[in-house]
Amino acid sequence: MADKNLPLVMKKTYLLILCVVILMVTILSGCGSKKPAKATEPATTPVASNDANTYFLVGEQAYDPISFEENGEAVGISPDVIREAFKRMGYKVKIQLLPWKRAQEIVKDGEADGLFSAYKTPQREEVYTFPQEPLLIEKNVFVVRKDSTITYDGDIAKMSKYGIGTLTGYATLEKYLEKRILTNVDNSTTTEEALNKLISGDRGVDLVVNTNYILAYTAKKMGKSDVIKELSIPVSENPSYLAFTKKKDLSAVMAKFEVELKKMKADGSFNAIVEKYIGKQK
Questions:
Q1: Do 133 and 243 share a structural domain?
Q2: Among positive and negative, which fits the CA dihedral 191, 197, 200, 206?
Q3: Which residue from 3, 27, 52, 230 has the least number of CB within 10 angstroms?
Q4: Could you tell me if 250 and 113 are in contact, meaning their C-beta atoms sit under 8 angstroms apart?
């Protein structure tokens, strides 16, 4: 009886061994097929080697003539100066203009490399790195009619007897208004409106106060540069900077930018850019 069943047992044994061998081959083949796939998977963070020397900088939109858009391109004194400086450095730069709050946020978070034209404050120094050399020095100044005899010696209390044109929400005069040092103030919604009141004598406006670049640029656009003049002493001066994010080590780039910016101011190319927007100042 046992002798008759032996071939059947052997057949079952061979079949079992064959199944095990096929299973092992299948498993090993499957494992082997996955290794090349892992080697060809793309990196989770793409590296754009062609952009290694390109920096992303942001500034405030609609801040003519400091930074504004023209034909879809970011232009103005700050973008033009920055482009020329980075070109001299051998770097490319991408510039985008955004609402000021948004621009500050993306540089703080490291999404963008730098922010212009930013005033230096203790709060901003915590999240941005500022070079020593300012990009611009924005002066808040008085302008008067060309034939005016009004002068300004730095004592703003003496200006209280004049009608002062300003813009609604203009921060420079706030402390003087709060302390009642100045009371005869006329508010406009635009610089052009304020200058028109000054030139025509409307509403008793004897002076207009604003940033020097904005006043000169607006007067040039209006064709009125020759009928107003800037009083020599500024009400205040605010250095503004190209500030860099602290999320990356951009110290070397910042140092090179500072060197080229100083060279531009020394060789006349900086003034040439400024004059393109506001004209030659007397």
A1: yes
A2: negative
A3: 3
A4: yes
Tens of pLDDT, residue by residue, the chain (282 residues): 444 444 444 444 444 444 444 444 444 444 443 333 333 333 322 232 347 789 999 999 999 999 999 999 999 999 999 999 999 999 999 999 999 999 999 999 999 999 999 999 999 999 999 999 999 999 999 999 999 999 999 999 999 999 999 999 888 999 999 999 999 999 999 999 999 999 998 789 999 999 999 999 999 999 999 999 999 999 999 999 999 999 999 999 999 999 999 999 999 999 999 999 999 876
CATH number, domain containing residue 153: 3.40.190.10
DSSP-derived secondary structure for 207-225: EEEEEHHHHHHHHHHHT-G
Number of folded domains in the chain? 2
219 with 171, same domain? yes
Q: Which residue has the tokens 């009125």?
A: 224
Same domain for 133 and 80? yes
Query: Within 10 Å of residue 261's Cβ, how many Cβ atoms?
Result: 22
- The rounded distance, in Å, linking the Cα atoms of 69 and 63 is 9
Task: Tell me if 37 is assigned to some domain.
Answer: no
Nearest of 202, 49, 212, 229 to residue 147 by alpha carbon: 229
DSSP 126-185: TTEE--SS-SEEEEEEEEEETT------S-GGGGGGS-EEEETT-GGGHHHHHTTS---E
Amino acid identity for residue 150 in this structure = I
Q: Is the peptide bond before 117 cis (omega within 30 degrees of 0)?
A: yes
- Domain limits for position 162: 139-237
Residue type, 251: S
